């Protein structure tokens, strides 16, 4: 063993999450999950929670990266417990017009406090992005704990949500009645229904990221954070006029000791505008309750416009949600739709190289041809992070220019870029990973 002050040699290992045919969590997966829980200040997982979490990772097809030290100090965590965790897996993102583009999702990033700021995150991230690029993926995405970490790796805020508190007293009245009706259900039906309703939401909502396995189990009240069932979860379904379920809400009461009495939305998925408003009408009708709290409402929320008193909705927070990283500008910008015609030449700075270069985006008939330019001067310049923010149309190029994140080299180019990339539908997703 070296001197205790020495920085140890690190061993990086990437392996698939694994559970045996008999249901036993494979030891490396179990150790990785225990370290991840510690990194996010969660309880050390019970056997039930460990089993649930491991099966979810396997169902997601997650690749786990662990960083190991071979000779840990005596009495400290053993060599099987990683000092850092990282996971990646593949899911689609709706990039507009119902086009679903496969993307590289990154989550579960933790580094033990005793090993931080030695470049472990940087190495896990750069190697993961390299693997994604080799597999031909054009986009990477993550949701973040702190907004200061990932810009340096080329990620930019692409979608946002509002946290809202809705007062459900007599002022809550919809201006028009949504079609269909709502009925209560045993939350366990969501195990099957939730993915089907979500798939319809995913296809209609630009910015939506396909969901990981855990969502349906949690919404069905079958997996609490501590493992095992969550008996407080309740559910309601929205039926369209043909009797088909096109929306659901899973919710729980905060209990009698909360003032005002509060119902928390755990998950609300609507595959139609009527389902969204119908579910809100239901939530507002719950008796012995004064307030409904929801932490993933659209920034452009139809509820506010649907109410006789828009002040029933209080926005308590604007949260950055999905951060996008363009790995292949040509494939990414040719995959999304375009509502207008036009062209602009964009220069991209990218410290990691993936999106670096000058690209001409020329859009016509809803599609764009994107070409790499070697001689043409860029009309605007951005870094990779701003490119990720602009990609879906969720960020306004004029606003990013005012913020110093887009530089204009040809008069009017920022306005042209903004018109070219504007989305013809609101940008909204409800998956956190
Ligand atoms: C997608 C997700 O999973 S989000 C969850 C992120 N995880 C957490 O918040 C859990 C608690 N935090 C941690 O575990 C660690 O502090 C981590 C993962 C954030 C950082 O890990 P480290 O190994 O210390 O990062 P590393 O040494 O590779 O630093 C890479 C760069 O990020 C910077 N950085 C690291 N952490 C932070 C931070 N919290 N805020 C701002 N900058 C940061 C470093 O200064 C360094 O910058 P540079 O390379 O440009 O000089």
TrEMBL record:
The superkingdom of the source organism is Bacteria
One Pfam entry for this protein is SCP2_2
Return the PROSITE patterns for the record.
GNAT (PS51186)
* Record: active site: 150, 433
Q: Which residues bind acetyl-CoA?
A: 109-111, 117-122, 145-146
Keyword Acyltransferase (UniProt): yes
**One Gene Ontology MF term:** aminoglycoside N-acetyltransferase activity
What keywords is this UniProt entry annotated with? Acyltransferase, Transferase
Keyword field contains Mitochondrion: no
Give the GO terms filed under biological process for this record: aminoglycoside antibiotic catabolic process
Q: Which family does it belong to?
A: Belongs to the acetyltransferase Eis family.
Read off the NCBIfam families from this record: PRK01346.1-6
Quaternary structure (record): Homohexamer; trimer of dimers.
What protein name applies here? Uncharacterized protein
| Organism of this sequence | Cnuibacter physcomitrellae
């Amino acid at each position: 063993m070296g001197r205790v002050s020495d920085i140890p040699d690190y061993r990086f290992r990437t392996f698939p999450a694994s559970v045996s045919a008999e249901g036993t969590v494979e030891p490396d997966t179990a150790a990785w999950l225990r370290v991840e829980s510690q990194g996010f200040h969660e309880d050390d997982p019970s056997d039930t929670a460990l089993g649930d979490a491991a099966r979810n990772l396997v169902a997601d097809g997650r690749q786990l990266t662990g960083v190991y030290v071979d000779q840990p100090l005596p009495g400290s965590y053993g060599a099987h417990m990683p000092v850092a965790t990282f996971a990646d897996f593949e899911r689609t993102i709706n990039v507009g017009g119902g086009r679903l583009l496969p993307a590289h999702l990154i989550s579960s990033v933790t580094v033990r406090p005793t090993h931080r700021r030695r470049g472990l995150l940087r190495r896990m991230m750069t190697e993961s992005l390299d693997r994604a690029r080799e597999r031909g993926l054009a986009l990477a995405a993550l949701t973040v704990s702190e907004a200061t970490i990932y810009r340096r790796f080329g990620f930019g805020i692409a979608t946002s949500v509002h946290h809202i508190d809705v007062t459900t007293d007599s002022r809550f009245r919809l201006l028009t009645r949504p079609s269909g009706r709502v009925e209560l259900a045993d939350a366990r039906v969501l195990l099957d229904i939730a993915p089907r309703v979500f798939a319809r939401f995913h296809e209609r909502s630009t910015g939506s990221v396909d969901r990981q396995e855990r969502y349906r189990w949690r919404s069905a009240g079958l997996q609490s954070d501590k493992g095992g069932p969550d008996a407080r979860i309740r559910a309601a379904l929205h039926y369209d006029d043909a009797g088909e379920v096109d929306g659901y809400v899973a919710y729980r009461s905060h209990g009698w000791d909360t003032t005002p009495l509060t119902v928390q939305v755990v998950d609300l998925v609507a595959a139609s505008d009527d389902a969204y408003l119908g579910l809100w009408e239901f939530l507002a009708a719950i008796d012995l309750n004064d307030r409904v709290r929801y932490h993933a409402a659209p920034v452009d929320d139809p509820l506010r416009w649907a109410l006789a008193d828009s002040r029933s909705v209080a926005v308590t927070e604007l949260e950055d949600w999905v951060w996008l990283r363009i790995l292949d500008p040509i494939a990414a910008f040719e995959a999304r739709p375009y509502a207008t015609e036009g062209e602009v030449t964009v220069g991209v700075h990218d410290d990691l190289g993936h999106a670096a270069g000058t690209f001409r985006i020329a859009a016509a008939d809803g599609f764009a041809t994107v070409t790499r330019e070697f001689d043409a001067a860029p009309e605007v310049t951005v870094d990779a992070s701003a490119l990720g923010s602009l990609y879906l149309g969720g960020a306004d190029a004029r606003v990013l220019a005012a913020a110093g994140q887009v530089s204009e080299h040809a008069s009017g180019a920022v306005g042209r870029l903004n018109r070219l990339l504007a989305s013809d539908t609101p940008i909204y997703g409800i998956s956190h990973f």
